[in-house]
Amino acid sequence: MKSLIALLGALVLSFPAFATDSACMSQAQEKKLAGAAQGSFMRKCVRDSCEATSAEKKLAGAARNSFTKKCVADGLMPYCEEQAAGKKLHGAAQTSFMNKCQTGN
Predict the structure, then answer these.
(1) Hey, where are the domains in the chain?
(2) Which pick of 10, 13, 42, 105 has the fewest CB atoms within 10 Å?
(3) pTM greater than the 0.85 cutoff
(4) Would you put residue 89 in left (φ > 0), alpha (ψ -120 to 50) or beta?
C-alpha cells in the first residue's frame, strides 16, 4: 500500500515535467529549430515551465530549488534520449551525455 502511494505521488509530481516536454517539443518543431538552437530553446522552455510550476505550488528555498532541478531533468529526459539515440551513443558515453544534457548545461 505504501509503495502504491509513493508511486502515485511520484507520478503526480512528475506530470508537469512530461506535459512541459510535449509542449516544448511541439513549439520547437513549429519553429523548425534544430541543433544548438533547439537544445537552447528546450532547456529554457522546460526550465521556465518548471519554475512556474514551483511558484504555483508556493515552494520556497531548498524545496523550490530541489523541485526545479528534478523537474528540469525529468522534462529534458525524452529530448536527451532522442539526441543520444541520434548520435548512436551506448554505455558510458550515453550515460555521460544524458547526465550533461539533463542538467541543462
Answers:
(1) 16-102
(2) 105
(3) no
(4) beta
